[in-house]
Amino acid sequence: MQYFFAALPILVVLSLMVFRRWDGMRAGWAGWLTGLLVSALFFGLTLEVWWVSQLKGLYLSSYVLVVLWPALLLYNMVDQAGGIRAIARGLERTIAKRGMLLVVLGWAFSGMLEGLTGSGIPIAIVAPMLVGLGVPPVSAVTAAAVGHGWSVTLGNMGVVVQTLLALVNLDLAILMPPIAALLGIACLACGLAVAHILGQLNLWRQVLILGALIAVVQFALAVSGLSPIAAFGGGVAGIVGGILLGGENHSTRRITFDQIKSFFKALMSYVVLTVLMAGIAIIPPVRAAFAEVVWRLVFPETITTSGFTTAINHQAFRPLLHPGILMMVVSLFSYFYYRKIGSLDGKKFKQAARATFFSAAPATLGVTAMVGLATIMDYCGMTMLLAQGLSLLMGVFYPLTTPLVGILGAFATGSNNNSNVLFILMQQNAAMLLGISAPLMIAAQTVGGSLGSMLAPAKVMVGCSTVGLRGREGAVLQRTLVYGLTIGVGIGILTFILASSRLPI
Q1: DSSP class of 502
Q2: Percent of the chain having pLDDT more than 70?
Q3: Spatial contact of 427 and 404, defined as CB atoms under 8 Å apart
Q4: How many Å from the N-terminal Cα to the C-terminal Cα in the chain?
Q5: N or C: which end of the chain has fewer CB within 10 A?
Q6: Beta bridge partners of 296
């Protein structure tokens, strides 16, 4: 019975979001209240355990939100300045082969957009573009949904990665190789799926080439300390590769100064951000100097009345190395730049700020509630109990199910980030109990959550609303479900093989 009560807060969150269609903010707080009651009644919650766990939850939430707000503001300013539309128009002019253009838009371009922002925006932008090129609406939304799945974990300018780092307390250098490697496999699978959806499977050779290019670039950026721009960089590499593979008779195409200016305007902010991050990552004296600025927090040891002990926890926050601080700087720079060249007047900036607020504010409340639930479950031993139960039930076959748990979480909550918050500590504890590589289990969980984003009803609804399919979301979900679960099972089999090999991953 204790297993049921330990799982009850998570079941409440999933049930409210799946069956009642609650958003993450309301369902998160309902789950938090459930967790508070259950932990007090059955797991020995004390006042000290409560305030320490929630203080840590607020700290971990702020670690994520420092990235979320400036990343969304930067994207919305670039969008209001016309940059995103300029890239889209440029692709239509430069990729002459229609089949390659469709695949690049549905796969690499949607992944690049996910690298910049989330919340279903890639589907909302790409699906109408595909319809405009003659793709049936259901296929257009399906392709955009499936196509962006590979980029979610390393997308949104690093929000998901920052959540992982905050929760599992492992070094980025340990986590990134297995995450980026599994995402590379998922990227290839998503590309082939998009080609199949769009009736362009005859381009499978080109898709494999582009998939390898995207995966290598994303992996290189991720493991070199540039994870906030890894998905963006991978998407750009895929777009460039698509232009090279899909162009013909380029000598007859005249590229005007205005087109060049539009491309520069579109990418300038993110190029500056990339240069800053790369400079800090690869210049040791700069990184060492920035690392000296540190804020330290110590969370005391706690003991529940049932005897579960959480040791003293030390947290160090280095603001000058945090990607959110750099995004704030680049956002400020971009504001003045776009104002100077006349692309962002006061009205457009207000629209960008308004869009940022209405997207980030509910997400802020939702993240705070979800992380608060995760920390109270962790401090009361509920997460460890769930890990023990699942590890006993599945035994050596546990790795097969890890990506599917991530998919379930993202489907139910609409977010890879929320899926990780709910399940990542359970996966880490299960790995420890089974003697399996914790980074591998964490990687499989978050890659599953990334794939599950293509199944999230909220994202599908956004895409359907932009192409006149309101009310026909079920037709899209039926198709994305097949692709998402197929790729997820494949990642599970690969995870099982790697875990069984006992390689030092």
Answers
A1: T
A2: 93
A3: no
A4: 35
A5: N
A6: 316
Which residues touch 348 (CB under 8 Å, ≥6 apart)? Answer: 80, 81
Give 279: exposed, middle or buried? Use CB within 10 Å, 0-12, 13-18, 19+.
exposed
State which H helix or E strand residue 97 sits in: none
What is the longest distance spanned by two Cα atoms in the chain? Answer: 77
Pairing of strands 313-317, 302-303: unpaired
Please write the tens of the pLDDT for every residue from 154-186: 987 788 888 888 888 888 889 999 999 999 999
Contact partners, residue 33, CB within 8 Å, separation at least 6: none
Lowest mean pLDDT among 179-188, 277-286, 392-401, 440-449: 277-286
Burial class for 196, CB neighbours closer than 10 Å (0-12, 13-18, 19+)? middle
Contact 428, 442 (CB under 8 A): yes
**For residue 19, how many other CB atoms are within 10 A of its CB?**
9
Q: Which residues contact 406 (CB under 8 A, 6 or more apart)?
A: 416, 419, 420, 423, 444, 445, 446, 447, 448, 449, 450, 451, 452, 488
- Pairing status of strand 309-310 against strand 302-303: antiparallel
Weakest mean pLDDT among 165-174, 237-246, 248-257, 383-392: 248-257
Contact 126, 113 (CB under 8 A): yes
Provide the pLDDT confidence category of residue 119 given band limits of 50, 70 and 90. low
- In degrees rounded to 5, what are phi and psi of residue 204? -60, -35
